Amino acid sequence: MDFFCLGKKVKMLSLGLKTIYHNHYYLHGIAFCATTFVYLTISDCEITNCSFELHALKFLFLFVVLIEDDDFKDLIVGCPQIQKLRTQKLHNIVVSNHELKFFGVNLDCSDGKIRIESANLESLEFISFSMDFCEVETTSTTTVRELTLRKACGQETLMNFIDKFPLLEKLIVDDCGKLQNLHHL
Q1: Contact 41, 68 (CB under 8 A)
Q2: Dist. CA 138–CA 86, nearest whole Å
Q3: DSSP characters over 117-142
Q4: Considering the domain boundaries, does residue 182 fall inside one?
Q5: What keywords are assigned to this protein (predicted)?
């Protein structure tokens, strides 16, 4: 396994790995260990068999990252203090993290499954999302206060999804196509 060491005071890292041919860069067998990181963005790569020990990390953003379920679980376990997680193009996601307060996903696909387990989840954001083709489960329906739906489709499923959060204080529905008769919100 390869190790990369950064200075002790580094708190933020943005790792953009797009290749010249727009292929994914392969991160394989790399150990990410840091005690000071609070913000990490990884984009345009495939993560396999990596080790993550980022105990101070609070913000994690994964954009166009290919990662298998087991590797994603290892990533989340290695970052126990994550408060804000944003992903793009991850199709099957299980997030189990007690500290997570915000989860955002940009998922323009079908046949996806997202499960969020967090006792402190306050905010959800779904972008380019088809509620009819992607299954979403959360154990935190009574803690979510803010829900954002952008470019989401499937009115009936969308309304049923909104109804799962009885204590919503803020609802943002933006660019959701042919939605009608939303008066009962």
Answers
A1: no
A2: 16
A3: E-TT--EEEEEEEETTTEEEEES-TT
A4: no
A5: Membrane, Transmembrane, Transmembrane helix
**CA end-to-end span of the chain, whole Å?**
52
Diameter of the chain measured on Cα atoms: 56
Tell whether 48 is covered by a domain.
Answer: yes
Question: Is residue 183 in a domain?
Answer: no
Report the sign of the C-alpha dihedral through residues 182, 135, 130, 141, in that order. positive
Entry pTM = 0.84
Task: With residue 36 as reference, give the H or E element that holds it.
Answer: none
Query: Is 55 a member of any domain?
Result: yes
What tokens does 34 get?
Answer: 């840091």
Per-residue pLDDT of the chain (185 residues; tens, 9 = 90+): 444 555 567 888 888 877 666 666 777 777 788 888 899 998 888 888 888 889 999 999 998 888 888 888 889 999 999 999 998 877 778 889 999 999 998 876 667 788 899 999 999 998 877 766 777 888 888 999 999 988 776 666 777 788 889 999 999 888 776 665 555 45
Q: How many domains does the chain have?
A: 1
And the tokens for 127? 């972008």
Domain of residue 131 covers 2-174
